[in-house]
Amino acid sequence: MFQILICEDHLEDIKHLSHLIHDAFAQENISYHLTILNEKSGLDFKNYDLIFLDIQLTSYNGIQLGHLIRRQCPKIPIIITSLYAEYLQQGYLIEAKRYLLKPISFLDFQRVFYDVILGDCKQQKALTDLRISPYKIYS
């Protein structure tokens, strides 16, 4: 199952992105689990296959959060979502795979889905065996 984390605090953006994710994964018949970052989900990113990261979060600074993600998980694809194009350069600092401007269009999301999710993510071979480690083990 594909594990996805959405780091977003605006309800309408969460709903919209969740809908785009659902439609794309359903079309390809890929099972997934979606988690929304909150106080309960904590700041442990090791079990995710993909992270959507908003730059302007109420509780966190998106770029600082991106650096934390990179320290824990250098290989996890990060897709930045933002209303502002001026944060594009900062996305390079955290090695984001893509940058989606809000509101995210279906066509833009589809491009990211096929390039990053079906391309990069499926090529990463990993397994999870809780007897060995609570985290994904990459080959």
Task: Describe the structure using short key phrases.
Response regulator, 4 helices, Sig_transdc_resp-reg_receiver, 7 strands, two-stranded antiparallel sheet, 5-stranded parallel β-sheet, CheY-like_superfamily, 139 residues, 21% strand, 37% helix, alpha/beta
SSE layout:
Elements lengths: L1 E6 L3 H17 L4 E5 L13 E5 L7 H11 L5 E5 L5 H6 L4 E4 L4 H18 L2 E2 L9 E2 L1
Parallel strand pairs: 1-2, 1-3, 3-4, 4-5
Antiparallel strand pairs: 6-7
Structure description:
By secondary structure, this protein is an alpha/beta fold. Helices cover 37% and strands 21% of the residues. The protein contains 4 helices and 7 strands. The protein has helices at 11-27, 62-72, 88-93, 106-123, and strands spanning 2-7, 32-36, 50-54, 78-82, 98-101, 126-127, 137-138. Strands 2-1-3-4-5 form a 5-stranded parallel β-sheet, with helices on both faces. Strands 6-7 form a two-stranded antiparallel sheet. The two termini are 17 Å apart. The mean pLDDT is 85. The modification 4-aspartylphosphate is found at residue 54. Keywords: Phosphoprotein. One of its GO terms (biological process) is phosphorelay signal transduction system.
Q: Topology as H/E string?
A: EHEEHEHEHEE
- The proportion of residues in beta strands is 15-25%
Unreliable parts? none
Structural class: alpha/beta
> Largest sheet at a glance?
5 strands, parallel
pLDDT averaged residue by residue: 85
Query: How would you write the strand order of the largest sheet?
Result: 2-1-3-4-5
DSSP helix fraction: 25-40%
What sort of overall outline do the alpha carbons produce when their principal axes are compared? globular
Keywords: Phosphoprotein
Protein name: Response regulator
